[in-house]
Amino acid sequence: MLLIQKITKSALSLFVILLLSQFSAFAAPDGQALFKANCASCHNPLKDATGPALQGVDKRVPSKEWLHKWVHNSAGVIASGDKYANDLYNKWGKTAMTAFPNLSDEEIDAVVTYVNSVKAPAAAAKKEDTAASKEDGGSWLYPIITLALLGLAIILWRVNKSLRRVVNTAEGLPVKKEIPFYRHKVIIAIIAIVVFIFCGFFIVNGGINMGRQQNYMPEQPIFYSHKVHAGINQINCLYCHAGAEKSRQAMVPSSNVCMNCHKGISEYTGAADHPLVNHEGKTIDGTAEIQKLYTYAGWDPVKKEYKRDAAGNILAKPIEWVKIHNLADHVYFNHSQHTKVGQIQCQRCHGPIEEMDEVYQFAPLSMGWCVNCHRQTNVQFESNNYYSLYQKYHAELKEGKRTGVTVEDIGGLECQKCHY
Question: What sections of the protein cross the membrane (predicted)?
């Protein structure tokens, strides 16, 4: 019996050691998750986007410590007169990188490790299946061993109890009637508390997320690929959404704006290089989608002129686009305040729009998301007449008393800024 107890204790000790070793791996920063949450809207590991490609960034910058300072507060590094920082700032159109003071040095290093590990799609396809299977097998080894030891510990625990009961019966000692574990008051109380916590979490989380549409991707009347237009053909966002820098609304372009190009472009010729595929995996005929545009615009592609009625009016009808980004009615948001004054890139809120064949809502657009952005984003004070009245902050920046001014500093968290 003592032997059984020793074996049980040894098995449990080994189980705890393996569990702790796994926990240390789980506790390490997830570079991929951090990259997607903080960097993906402006950077790509392998190619330039709004910002430079990040792969090999640790080899390009002066030092790891410099990189940490840059991520925490790029405006401060630029203001210090650092030559490398100012050259980088000028090279990318004097668009300052968003500060991330909340990221630790360890998390920044995890992001760098991740982007350096990303392989090009072609290179990734050349990996041998045998190597992949070995890697997958190794990743499952520890969980399998852990579960096996846990099962062994339970079996030995039951064997120990059975042997004790046999010994007590043989020695004439009283044998206590066992109560099933699921009928113990402590077990019942623990299960009730856990169920209560989980139910409360899902109810509260569901209530908080009511009305939010992150990842919402409706089917549109015309399959319009932003990747083809804004990505491959490099059409500026403002050509179609002209109001983004001039008014509160970014504006959805009318079919007339589309026809400026498609009077001469009547077929999609990029199917070989970039076939159009929707989120369900169905191949889309780009030329047929252009014909849909002609129907809405009232254009005759054969005669190269607009169709008109007897009174001379063009037989056109509006395209019934499905709205994707919706804010609550009590929220005031001004595009020009952010894109023109704040010089925020479209990708900051809309994600990598130039890579989307079908547009979806990238950000949660929640109040917390907006508030955090106002707390972390430095205002573009230089060469910006909108902020010329803030003489105190301009003086402090020149004197080196502050490295930057956030939206929060100029009242960006006041309720009436967004709720009139």
Answer: 140-159, 186-208
